[in-house]
Amino acid sequence: MVYTWKRLILPMLLALSCAIASSACSSENEKLSSDSLSAIADKVWSFSQLHPDGFTLDIRTMTEPAEGIAVSYAATQNRHSRNQLEDVVRHALEHEGYVGGWYNSVNGLYYFDSTRLFHEDALPEAIQFGKDNSQQSVFILSSDTDVPTNGKIAEIALRGALLVGTTGDYRPLSFYETETDLYWGFGIEVAQEIARRLGVEISFVKTSWPTLSADVLYSPQRFDFAIGGITITDARKESMLMSEGYLVNGKTILCRSEDTHRFTSLSDIDRPEVRVMVNPGGLNEQFALKNLTHATIIVHQKNEEIPSLVAEGKADVMITEITEAPYYVQTDTRLAAPLLNAPFTHGEIGILMQKGQEDLLNFVNAAIQEMKADGSLRHLHEKYGLVYGYQ
Fold it and tell me: 153-246+348-383 is classed in which CATH architecture?
């Protein structure tokens, strides 16, 4: 019996002893945890005083991530003081380890939140997480871009596809190949890069130069924005939104190679015997009607057919852009662009969209700026033989 008693009691005593020891250790760990939270909160608070305009901080390393999409948790909303900051730090350590904050100069309060960081190609997921956590926006760190969770970008992200209007008749900026049912060109690749940054697929919608503005303004929308050889003008900016320029352009001409010395100025073209061909509804037609009052103006419906018609002698001159002319000179030895380096006008090509889509405009502009900064836009210019006009 004594042996049996020992077999029962000794394990119980051992378990009790371990429980007491474990309790003491747990209390000590809780104390250390509290001290650790306070120390981290102190560091975050000090950091916030030096970064009132806003920050996202990895509190495990006390470093700021340069990339990612920062989205706040609803669980830590409305934490302002140094004492409340500890709740934010605790939540962050239990999750991804990021804390965001900024100073509101209107009410004199700091705002702190536990933050989740998404990869920058996961914008749809970030927006959905923001919606689920009652956030008004998400923040792209690399471009300092605030993206509303209820806006045009959110609509595109949750749809899963960017709808892009393009004429498909403007080599090498936007061209539709009927044989392959595919679009290609400089502008097409810019649009594809924007879709990639949005984390969505892309779908192209056919438009035309005569109907371009009407198609952009149509309700319900046929596409999210239009891209191609669309020149930035004050007239367009009055009724629509236009991005910053991503390609310099200017009016010039295509003619037959044997006529290179015949056309050396605008006055050489503005003669009754000179047949000038333009596509309808665009700025090329407007330029011809305004500046070539003596020449014979021929309007041809399909822009992509005009270079061949000039080469065949059906017209003497095509009014075009310095962005389009080099392609045809390189691909058809019958053609020349004698005034390529002395364009009649100077401008830029941009992306066109409806007013009320300022969030999309800001995103597009940020993408263009990044492409200029990282060299990818210059690389695209070189790929398509275009002149790079930016520093």
Answer: 3-Layer(aba) Sandwich (3.40)
